[in-house]
Write a structure and sequence with these properties.
InterPro entries: GPI_mannosylTrfase
Distance between the termini: 60 Å
Strand order of the largest sheet: 2-1-3-5-4
Helix content: 55-70%
Radius of gyration: 27 Å
Keywords: Endoplasmic reticulum, Glycosyltransferase, Membrane, Transferase, Transmembrane, Transmembrane helix
Subcellular location: Endoplasmic reticulum membrane
Shape: globular
Family: Belongs to the glycosyltransferase 22 family.
GO molecular function: alpha-1,2-mannosyltransferase activity
């Protein structure tokens, strides 16, 4: 394993070479050298003692400065066990896992519907046999590979008899937190490889302090796995020196997996793959064979998974491109101006890191740094292509953040001590409060409300002994924008539910009217027809902006306000400040 130089504060982290000079380094060197001698005696081939030691200690990508900084003796690093543990890659990785798990446990808010409805809701239905699927899973737009990981987790919990409502709700985010730690770790390795130890430490700090990464990384979104695979791919990419054949396979597999999971990943990787091919003229056939073989392998695995899940031969990637590019069905969920990513998307997700990134990009261009200039051009190219798509979201550019965090870390590593302290203080004072607000407060109503409904279902079962799906008096009605809340992944009870449908007209039905729009055009009339013609609900959940139009109907039908759940200080379209839970008078 490779040592990671770490100090107790910002100054020691920035002075990576100084922190790496420890009194115990010579012992490590002797230990590694003895291992090298044993390896040679056992018949393994190796080069000179110094180069073998460098490979064992740092890996083939290490610079001479990194190795020199590691083996020079120094009295600046003490013998504390914690400090020694952090001087290894294993210690760093375990620390990142602990950090991201704490990050996941701090998440009590809702971001976008896809974090539930394209992952854990699908997994819950696969593992437990009940749940609701959105239209994408009928049309075959989504690959089941990502939800399949959570379905396996749920199945293991079920077999162990540990599938409590809390475990089913929390463990997927903890699993995703572990994947986020892998992404952090590979960002560190990538930055160390192309810019050295000092820049790598600051790049990692920038990532850990980025408010949007804290807010998004532990969420069960396919964009988060795309973010991870992008970081892994960057590390194994030949920058520009030749990589081992094994590393090239890992790079190609990461790229292919990212494109299989999110076909739009092909946009940023196209540029890097073309650059790789252009630099490999003498080995062009081998490079193309590598891309072709890994692409076919991942496509075959994805196709078999689609066949198993959908019960028919289909390719979710082609369906995704058909509906989102040819049919432009994404515009159904909102249309944004072409400049949205430049004027809102990137500035918002970077936050206080924006000045660092802009300055680093300028310096890279001015100093003709090959890798960093390529990363800047890659960001520009991706934003250019994505700007042609009508529907835009912050999470779509989340996989670009590691590229930017590397640039920010390189910038911090080259600043003077006073300016660097001021920059880090700014990142902490602005980024951490923003992350805490969005993780703990903003849009927490949906999770609080559904957790309350889950407790009600559990109490009902305890009192009556009747399973939820057989209880005629238990029925939840959601009069809110569709997919505003998670459902069975947090209820974990086969209770009867009714939500508004907002599926686009993907079947091209003549005269199609979206149910959600029909409700909002006449809330009282639509709700009255629901109460007259469908099963009478025990609970009704709605946003407080609808209360003036539904209060009279609910009171005359015998419903009483039971609880208010804070949602947001800002109104977001039809999602307002509070979620209101009404119950039948005989239930209260």
């Amino acid at each position: 394993s490779r040592p990671v130089m770490s100090g107790g504060g910002g100054n020691s982290l920035s002075a990576a070479a100084s922190a790496g000079r420890c009194s115990h380094a010579s012992a490590y060197v002797r230990s590694r050298a003895s291992r090298a001698q044993r390896s040679r005696r056992s018949g393994q081939q190796a080069g000179a003692g110094e180069s073998l030691l460098g490979r064992l200690w740092w890996g083939p990508e290490a610079t001479k400065e990194d190795r020199d900084a590691a083996i020079e003796p120094s009295e600046t690093v003490g013998p504390e066990p914690l400090r020694r543990s952090l001087l290894t890659e294993r210690g760093l990785f375990l620390s990142l896992v602990a950090f991201r798990c704490a990050n996941a446990l701090l998440l009590h808010t809702h971001f976008v519907p896809d974090e539930f409805w394209q992952s854990v809701e699908v997994a819950h239905r696969s593992a437990f046999g009940y749940g609701h699927l959105t239209w994408e899973w009928q049309a075959g737009l989504r690959s089941p590979l990502y939800p399949g990981a959570f379905a396996l987790l749920f199945k293991l919990l079920q077999l162990a008899g540990a599938d409590s409502r809390l475990a089913v709700a929390k463990l997927p985010r903890l699993l995703q937190a572990c994947l986020a730690a892998v992404a952090d770790f590979y960002l560190y390795r990538f930055s160390r490889r192309v810019a050295g130890q000092r820049a790598a430490q600051w790049a990692l700090i920038c990532q850990l302090l980025n408010w949007f990464t804290l807010y998004t990384a532990p969420r069960t979104l396919s964009n988060c796995v795309e973010w991870l695979l992008t970081t892994v791919g960057l590390y194994y990419y030949p920058w520009p020196e030749a990589q081992s054949r094994k590393a090239q396979w890992k790079f190609a597999l990461a790229v292919a997996a990212a494109c299989a999971l999110r076909p739009t990943s092909a946009v940023p990787w196209l540029m890097l793959c073309l650059w790789h091919a252009a630099r490999s003229r003498r080995r062009l056939g081998r490079v193309l064979a590598l891309y072709g073989a890994t692409g076919l392998l991942v496509l075959a695995v994805s196709g078999l998974a689609d066949k198993h899940y959908y019960g028919r031969w289909t390719l979710s990637q082609l369906n995704f491109l058909h509906y989102n590019l040819l049919s432009d069905i994404g515009s159904f969920y909102g249309v944004h101006p072409w400049h949205w990513y430049i004027t809102q998307g990137i500035p918002a997700i970077l936050g206080p890191h924006l000045p660092l990134y802009l300055y680093a990009s300028y310096q890279s261009w001015r100093q003709r740094r090959r890798v960093e200039t390529a990363l800047t051009l890659l960001v520009i190219w991706t934003l250019y292509v994505y700007s042609f798509l009508a529907h835009k979201e912050f999470r779509f550019v989340f996989p670009l953040l590691p590229l930017m965090m590397h640039q920010c870390g390189l910038c911090l590593s080259e600043l003077g001590p006073a300016l660097r302290k001021a920059a880090v203080a700014c990142l902490c004072c602005l980024g951490i409060p923003a992350a805490l607000y969005f993780c703990l407060i903003h849009q927490r109503g949906p999770l609080d409300a559904v957790n309350h409904l889950g407790k009600d279902a559990e109490l009902r079962l305890t009192r009556t002994g009747v399973p939820a799906h057989l209880d005629p008096d238990l029925h939840f009605l959601f009069l809110a924008p569709c997919h505003s809340t998670p459902l069975y992944s947090h209820l974990h009870s086969n209770v009867s539910t009714r939500t508004l449908d907002c599926s686009p007209n993907w079947r091209d039905q003549p005269g199609y009217v979206e149910e959600q729009e029909a409700f909002y055009s006449d809330p009282a009339g639509f709700a009255s027809r629901l109460l007259d013609t469908e099963r009478r609900p025990s609970h009704i959940l709605l946003f407080d902006s609808l209360l003036p139009r539904l209060r009279g109907l609910l009171e005359t039908r015998g419903f009483t306000l039971r609880k208010k759940f804070f949602n947001s200080h800002f109104e977001d379209g039809r999602r307002s400040h509070y979620l209101l839970l009404f119950c039948r008078s005989d239930w209260v």
